[in-house]
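Worked example 4.2. Below are the chains of a multi-component assembly; read each line carefully before continuing.
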Amino acid sequence: MANNMTLLWCTFSVPCWRVMIALEEKMLQGYNQTLLDFDKEEHKSTIVMDLNPRAQLPTFKHGDCIVNESYGACMYLENQFRSQGTQMIPEGLAEQALMYQRMFEGQTFYEKLSDVVYYEYYVPQGERHDSAIKRNKGNLAIEIKLWEGYFQKMEAGSYLAGKAFSLADVLVFPTIAYSFRSGLSAERYPKLGAYYSMMKDRPSVKTTWPPHWQEDQEKPQWGDFLKEL
Amino acid sequence: MANNMTLLWCTFSVPCWRVMIALEEKMLQGYNQTLLDFDKEEHKSTIVMDLNPRAQLPTFKHGDCIVNESYGACMYLENQFRSQGTQMIPEGLAEQALMYQRMFEGQTFYEKLSDVVYYEYYVPQGERHDSAIKRNKGNLAIEIKLWEGYFQKMEAGSYLAGKAFSLADVLVFPTIAYSFRSGLSAERYPKLGAYYSMMKDRPSVKTTWPPHWQEDQEKPQWGDFLKEL
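Applying the procedure described above to all two chains together yields the following structure tokens:
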């Protein structure tokens, strides 16, 4: 029981989801958790600000240790609970190299997805340009084709860094899931689609599935941002 | 001798500098290296593209393993050469948590610095706005104050994650160095300035100091982008 751990999170958040998957994989169930409402600006409330001056979610605490950055929290958990639950860093040299490469490429993937999906959130009205929207979508399409290509070169049923599930999956799967929920076509990107389907059945993913997605699992949540991609 | 390692890099690059510092810290001198000219678009040449479809520098290879993402390469090197050179992941729980927190916050720092310094490079002419330039500078100022504050709460002479040098320093110091080289005032940010001075004397930093900075160490390289910050 991970009752010395606290997670403040919000639904709709890729970074929060990463940490929740890692906690499940490391068998750290039973942590204290509070679901906050981003739209009500609860991420700016004092319970967050006291632990996280950036006013961001996730906010994560283990004993007296605070690791709010999602990549940092997942790596910290793997390091602290190495022999518990899933081993998330593979032993093999090649798999390890591929894991580190893919997990950080995953940040670029998430940035490019955010540039499309959150454009109106990030860019004030007077500074928006159709040319930027078009370019962002183009960049995201190139990015997604790159990932489809990575899977094309691997055996069917592979995880992101090879035969074994790893930190790369913990950190990048939520971005892939959000892409499909934003209208990405599994027909056009069949390898990514197969990976998405495989991962959806993983217990750590099932347990942490965003609550607002439960009602209608197949309908794009974000509108059809990525439909034509 | 690290003669089974290859690094393709360019000067002026924070991500390249991270990997070069890590290689020095892990006593991996003697690697094959090629300095490419970004302005001549040599990062799009076939020697890069063959290893790195993103056409980015650094491009790093160890034997048959390719890890081009700078954070990934540094973590891979620490993992593969754990008992060689500097131990870059501290033992203590609190130091380790702080290291993971700061190293990933460092990505935000670098993003905000890039938003200011590379604005004209990233944003096409017709899409530029004075309001965005002003906002980016404001965001960077907030960010830098945050880091100054982190050092204020630590003992004099501390590294980013405490008493010991760690991966956080490898990954974030180049961003801090670029900030000062872009005109940041060490008078206004004395704790960051003291850290910058301390790190400048570290052998791994001295050896890898950007070659184009050698001639006039004190003159801001990038112009005075950050002078008024």
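Take a moment to check your reading of the output against the notes. The mean pLDDT of chain A is 93. Residues 93-117 of chain A form the longest helix (25 residues).
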